[in-house]
Amino acid sequence: MMRTYAGHSTAKKSNELYRGNLAKGQTGLSIAFDLPTQTGYDADHELARGEVGKVGVPVAHRGDMEALVEGIPLGDMNTSMTINATAAWMLALYIVTAEEQGVEARVLQGTTQNDIIKEFLARGTYAFPPGPSMRLIADMVAYTVEEVPKWNPINICSYHLQEAGATPVQEIAFSMANAIAVLDAVRDRVDEALMGKVFSRISFFVNAGVRFVEEHAKLRAMGILWEELGRDRYGVTDEKQLRFRYGVQVNSLGLTETQPENNVQRIVLEALAVTLGRNARARAIQLPAWNEALGLPRPWDQQWSLRIQQVLAFETDILEYPDIFEGSKVMEGLVAELVDGARAEMAIVAEHGGAVEAVDYMKGSLVESHRERIARIERGEQIVVGINKYSDSEDSPLAAGEDGGILTVDPGVEAEQQAALEDWRAGRDQAAVDAALAELARVAQSDENIMEATIAAARAGVTTGEWAQTLRDAFGSYRAPTGVGEAASGPPSESNEELVEEVERVSEVLGRRIKILVGKPGLDGHSNGAEQIAVRAKDIGMDVVYEGIRLTPSQIAKSALDEGVHVIGLSILSGSHRELIPSVMTALAEAGVDAPVVVGGIIPAADVAGLKECGVAAVYTPKDFDLQKIMRDIVSLVAERNGVAAPA
Amino acid sequence: MSEAAALGARLRERDLSAAPAVLNLVETRTRADEVAAMLREVSPAALGGEAPGHLVGITGPPGAGKSTLLSELVRAWRARGRSVAVLAVDPSSRRSGGSLLGDRARIDYDPTDPGVFIRSTAAGEQLGGLAPATRAAAQALSAAFDVVVIETVGVGQSETDVAEVADTVAVIVQPGSGDALQFIKAGIMDIPDVLVVTKSDLGQIALRARRDLHAALRSAGARDVEVVAVSSLPPADGIDALIDALEKHRAGLDVAARRLDARRHAALADFRAEHGERGLRALGGRRAAQRWLAGQEEGLEVPSLVQALSDRAAKESS
After folding, report:
1. Which domain holds residue B278?
2. pTM
3. d(CA A591, CA A586)
4. How far apart are CA A266 and CA A270, in angstroms?
């Protein structure tokens, strides 16, 4: 099955995009939701500022869902929704919308991602604490297995773990441990006889990096472990139910901002990892666009990714043979090595009491692996063409167009969505909404399955923010571990020593240690960059205040003021920097904080001047892979702003 | 009036917005004279009595649920109209000198509320103990804030240090961990003023933990220590009872005597940190120094006492 991950601006605009993609030969829908929808906030919530319609489509109620799939027959569609914390809610909206089309829930086909542990570990769009989150997932699995039997209620994602720095062994082990946590929770909620069916509905969403031979071995290893798990732990015997099913999105972490055309061959090679051997071939493939490290892909960029798949499938001969690695000693050896490594790692997670309890441990391990990856690139031990080798380049005509080679979302979308939301609230039967929310609150506190009350709320016209707030009130709020404290310090190196001394020197003159605030404003949960900056700043001797993701401008200003920091580092990858950074700068000024601000993230070149105009001291983008250089800049910035003379 | 003294005067007038600058000042090692000038403005002599704020020490082993509990406490204090300052001392390691201060992230508060101030400080070289800056900050802020919380990790040294600053020390333990129990029995841990058992939603286990603690306290001869069970998970439970227990302890306390004792103790510690054993010998040893301090004016703040000790030592050894 071929899909491209898409959605932006409004439901209506996304609907046009989907219809266009279906006409080009795409065979399913893959819905990208915006961050407020993913984290359970309406467009008029403070945290939604700057994020509405940015990385996906806003869906606030059944009216939005209806507009999103208008003219698309849901009975014939296979729809993948990248939705996690609010998955139960989106499925409810989808079911209600299908009802309107006269399509029964029984025939609906598709997948809700619904994997919360990787949200705590890597992606950051969680809404509720781990315990209640797992309960929602278990409720959904238990519900769909009977009522929406063709639905894949959960897609265990190892994808994001690799994006967060996981080694192949960690990727296998942590995702298997995650699946165990889900299956164990479901086992408590369904009839034992249904476990085979439940097991067969669990699919995976994996990553494939450019080391595609090892990556292929990884998938074979996952198949082996999955089957073993089914037989031994859950007593599944049916061969079909035991099959390891997975979809794939190939690696984005390795895509580069400089010489972005090279990303095309990276994507092709990564696609080979998941297609070469028949015994471990992906069911559904999504390829990222060549310009992901630059900003949002345009329709043409997405078409290019779809064409890569079509060439692979229809022009090459890879689909014509049985498994080409069967009998290969090298492949067997690689697989065995990964299986052994993963077993050992799974045992550690089990010792912690399972994946839910081991979130802190896993997060710390990932931050550590990622730190090592960056250090290898800095030292030149891991070659990234165009970054730390062969970095001289002709100007790329690809990014030279008027739009800078990316899609920009109309900033008017947010106000439009807010107005539409207000109309929706005014036009609905408020008494029915209140009653539905009261029932939802009651069920949340009880042991009953959440789905019936959620579907009733969808029918009544409840909004995404209202549904999530009701559950937040019932379950409590939560902040995931940052992993930064757990990650061990990096090995001392020469360039480190030099920086440590400089930090020490400047701190001595200042009279107190250099203190930095690392903040992630907005809803974007991609915290790799922020975490690595925090870890490195600590390693070179700074006091680091890092509060994790999802901060409002006023929270950042308050922390900066209370903590008396010398410098502030902000990280944003969702494209909302144009709205959020000025808001943060204003909040800082209002609080009377004059510490310099540096910004890192996916910031198109065209936006840099604007950020500097509003007072940002420096901007770093993915091409600035050398963390040491960034840290050196930051230390000099602090010295300069505080009148500390340069070293003699 | 110097800038530093003006800061102290703002605290005396209960201007909460002075807090960030006060912390920046006390943490700056090169500005000891200014710190002393600021502290003089909030000394009991200047205030005409002890600072009104309640100094609460909160300590316990990692993972006991301190930050989550603190989050609930801050909310409850604010609901009662009390202003709150939290000084979170982070234990993070200092191999390179750097540290990660992540504690404030776990405290859920309204960033636009001027009645809440949170500052994190690295424990630094004071392994598990309390940085002198934290002590000075606590004393200064208690002139302006209704409640000043000093949060430290660990049981043992840090808890003893906190006791030297706080009016009331609450030790947090979680059910199932026998540590606190063992420490009390072995006499490693001083008897806290209030014992808090977190995660009381754990039911039977928490109940047993509470019973065991009562027994341990009885065998240590401390029958009147309050043991409060709290749950920070929604719906939070026991928070008001805990606040009541903290206040009850303070109401029964001779605050002036405890703080006077604390100031003299701190002065001696600071003097020793500066002048070492040799300095102490010049004063005729620890006991003699303590006796001499007891004869000093009661309203003096720590830097003045340290100065007086230094002067005396210089005189004795000359």
Report:
1. 257-317
2. 0.86
3. 9
4. 6
Distances (CA, A) of B28 to A2, B131, B306: 61, 12, 18
Q: What is the DSSP letter of B147?
A: E
Residues B263 and B237 in one domain: no
Q: In terms of domains, do B290 and B248 share one?
A: no
Find residue A81's DSSP bridge partners. A31, A112
Q: Which among A520, A538, A566, A577 is annotated as catalytic?
A: A520
- Beta carbons of A554 and B120 less than 8 Å apart: no
Q: What is the rounded CA–CA span in Å between residue B202 and residue B180?
A: 18
- Angle formed by the axes of helices A430-445 and A464-475, to 10°? 30
Q: Tell whether B168 is covered by a domain.
A: yes
* Residue A218 is among the residues annotated as catalytic for this protein: no
Is residue A549 helix, strand or coil? coil
- Please tell me which residue in A301, A524, A539, A607 is annotated as part of the active site: A524
Per-residue tens of pLDDT for chain B, all 318 residues: 899 999 999 999 999 999 999 999 999 989 999 999 999 999 999 999 999 999 999 988 777 778 889 999 999 999 999 999 999 987 665 556 788 887 787 788 899 999 999 999 887 655 445 677 888 999 999 999 999 999 987 655 555 678 888 999 998 887 766 666 666 666 656 678 898 888 766 667 667 777 777 777 777 776 678 888 888 776 778 999 999 999 999 999 999 999 999 899 889 988 988 888 899 999 999 999 999 999 999 999 999 999 999 999 988 877
Whether B311 and B214 share a structural domain: no
As a residue count, chain B comes to 318
Q: How many CB atoms lie within 10 A of CB A646?
A: 9
Contact B129, B161 (CB under 8 A): yes
- Using an 8 Å Cβ cutoff, are A82 and A32 in contact? yes
Cα torsion B40, B45, B51, B52: sign: negative
Q: Is B75 an interface residue toward A (CB < 8 Å)?
A: no
Q: B160 is written with which tokens?
A: 């003893």
d(CA A155, CA A82): 9
* Interface touch A547/B96, C-beta < 8 Å: no
- List, for residues A552-602, the tens digit of each pLDDT value: 999 999 999 999 999 999 999 878 898 899 999 999 999 999 999 999 998
Number of domains in chain B: 2
A558 vs B contacts (CB less than 8 Å)? 111-112
**B14 at the A interface (CB within 8 A)?**
no
The full set of domain ranges for chain A reads 11-390, 494-641
B194: β partners: B170, B226
Contact A513 B97 (CB under 8 A): yes
CATH domain A11-390 topology: TIM Barrel (3.20.20)
Residue numbers of B between 15 and 54 with CB closer than 8 Å to A: 19-20, 23-24, 27-31
Structure tokens at A15: 């609907």
Neighbours of A417 (CB within 10 A): 25
B11 in a structural domain: no
Considering just the CA atoms, what is the radius of gyration of chain A in Å? Answer: 24
Q: Looking at chain B, which residue has its C-alpha nearest residue A535?
A: B100
Residues B299 and B235 in one domain: no
Cis? peptide before B235, omega within 30° of 0? yes
Q: Which CATH superfamily is domain A494-641 in?
A: Cobalamin-binding domain (3.40.50.280)
- The CATH number of whichever domain residue B229 belongs to comes to 3.40.50.300
Contacts of A473 in chain B (CB under 8 A): 234
Question: Shortest CA distance to A309 belongs to which of A364, A248, A236?
Answer: A248
- Which of A45, A160, A370, A566 is labelled catalytic? A160
- b/e burial code for range A302-328 (CB count within 10 A of at least 16 → b): bbbbbebbeebeeeeebeeeeeebeee
- Rounded distance, CA A213 to CA A280, Å? 12
